[in-house]
Amino acid sequence: MRKAGWTVLGAAVAGLVTGCTGNPPAKQPPASDSKPKASQKVKRELPEGMHRLGQGVTTEEGTWKLTPSALTQVTPTSRAKGLPQGWRAAKMTWTLTNKTGEVQQLLDLAPTVRYGALGKPAAAFTDTGIEGIPDAISDDPPRVKPGGAYTLTVGVAVPADAAGEPVTITTRPSTLFGDTGDVAFFEGPFPGAAARKDAVLHPRPAPDTGKALAFGQWKADPQMTVDHVRPEGTDGGRVMFSGELTVRNTAAVADLPYTPMKKSVRVSYGDELKEADLTPGGAGAADTGFIAPQRAATHTFHFALPKGAKAESVTVEVTDLGTAEATFEGKIAD
Fold first, then answer.
1. Quick one: pLDDT at residue 137?
2. Hey, which residues does 241 pair with through a beta bridge?
3. Is the pLDDT reported for residue 7 higher than 80?
4. Strand-strand pairing, 264-269 and 313-320
């Protein structure tokens, strides 16, 4: 078993009830007293091609059916691993059904999990009864008999204030030859609060002036922004910083071309625009999980200035496979 890791769903119908012939009509409550029942509430629609958690999707040319459950809040035990302190914990199950008449090696899901309007990365954790995702790409992978099903139980965690926010999950199964499988998008609320209605991002792009954009402004095409550049302490005399790159997929449906979060950043400081040092786990390439239609994804990058160097502001260039797409500049927040 490998550690849990993430590389990072109709309207209700109400019938009309009438009295029997000859009986007086039933009293109707005043309109102001009428409250819709829970079963009558209209669920928020998803972009075409996305699925709600709980819906099954046939994938890999009909070889597999993926059925992810809704998230269920859990209380972690002392054995929990990978759970950030103070974050809310939930679990979900994935049922992978072999739709063929042959024994199949277990599909490697390789899911990317994000939460909220900005699509920030959720955390994966393991615990008693929450084993995470097995290594399906190994010398001895799990196998599933014809018509059989394999169930995974995985842990998902978000910050304490993210209850009720949508959790968006992207799967693209992996094989020994890389990520070659079908892309599928699922979404559902994180438990612990009512589902939030304002969880979809609607940025207002800044006009194209030919100059660098300020931190927090949005580029129109592709839609992206850089913000929250701030210090993170020191390491060996160097001052460490972090920032956030957010990219939004403007597509209306979940169809090709998908928008991958495959970006890199280059950070410069001073009047001479000297290049800062990118630090591990951050400013290189962002994760490559695809972004769902009408959704965003946020990548936190990290960089450091050489010992003795000082900067009140920095310039951040965003590139895609070496091609510059946008430039942002601004002051470093306190």
1. 80
2. 231, 303
3. no
4. antiparallel
Question: Please, what is the Cα angle at 199 between 198 and 204, to 5 degrees?
Answer: 80
Give phi and psi for 174, each to the nearest 5. -105, 155
Residue 283 pLDDT greater than 90, yes or no: no
pTM (whole model) above 0.70: yes
3-state per-residue secondary structure call for the chain: CCCCCCCCCCCCCCCCCCCCCCCCCCCCCCHHHCCCCHHHCCCCCCCECEEECCCCEEECCCCEEEEECCCEECCCCCCCECCCCCCEEEEEEEEEEECCCCCEECCECCCEEEECCCCEECEEEEECCECCCCCCCCCCCCEECCCCEEEEEEEEEECHHHCCCEEEEEECCEECCEECCCCEEEEEECCCCCCCCCCCCCCCECCCCCCCEECCCEECCCCEEEEEEEEEEEECCEEEEEEEEEEECCCCECCCCCEECCCEEEEEECCCCEECEECCCCCCECCCCEECCCCEEEEEEEEEECCCCCCCEEEEEEEECCEEEEEEEEECCC
Tell me the residue length of the chain.
Answer: 334
Report, as an integer, the average pLDDT of 202-226. Answer: 94
Q: Which amino acid is at 44?
A: R
